[in-house]
Fold:
Amino acid sequence: MTFRDILEDRTRRELSLTVYASTPQSDLVDRLELRSASVDERVLPACGSDGFLVVREGGDFVTALDLEGVRSFLDPPRCPPWDDALVTVDYAIVLETFDDALWMNLERSQLVATTRIIENKAARVGEGVLRAGLGRLSALYVRTPIYERLASETDLEIHAYGRPDWDPPRISGTTVHPVDDDGGPEGGRDADAGGDELGTDADWNGDRTADGEIGRYRFVTYDGGSNEQQACALLAERRGENSYAGFWTFDPAVVDELETYVERTYG
Structure:
């Protein structure tokens, strides 16, 4: 079992997406790229509506999302994890709709926003285990205040994993796991790492295997504490500069599979 095995197993949802709008939405259609999903668009008569996205699975209607909400997913808001506005914004609705679907072109901003949703749920429950694979430990330069606040205001057990490109200070309530993956550059903290929670893609050279598993994948898991129905997780593989293939899930069994692999493999 590896991260890739878990990622490749996310092929069971057969979705079809149709964008309805009064003007062409080719830019939006191009960004709605999922595995095992077809995407097309239909033109509506001019009206006051911004348009909507119809989601079907196996030919059956699932839901309709307004395009403003879909755009909020493609270009998400930046909120701290303790901001309860996260659970009401359109972004959260999109996450629920595409639970367990494999996206082929996620951007870093979408991974950060999805991480915020997971951290928000963990903060509201207030207990359990939160694990995050950051690529490189230099990402803790930004995330340390977040973890310190979560640890001080909750009973969460927090674990952070990454390649040891930086020696972070002691973080209250957080266990840091340096992982020496095969391959990838070593050295001091990247010059721009302090501005990004996912490390940096500055060294990207097109080789998907060069940076080892921890360096290549980003993940967040939350076990739900005493209520497994609160469990959720994110897993994404870096495929290029600011380009990731990945999925999120609210399925306790899938969360447990991912968390168990992380704990057994990396501590």
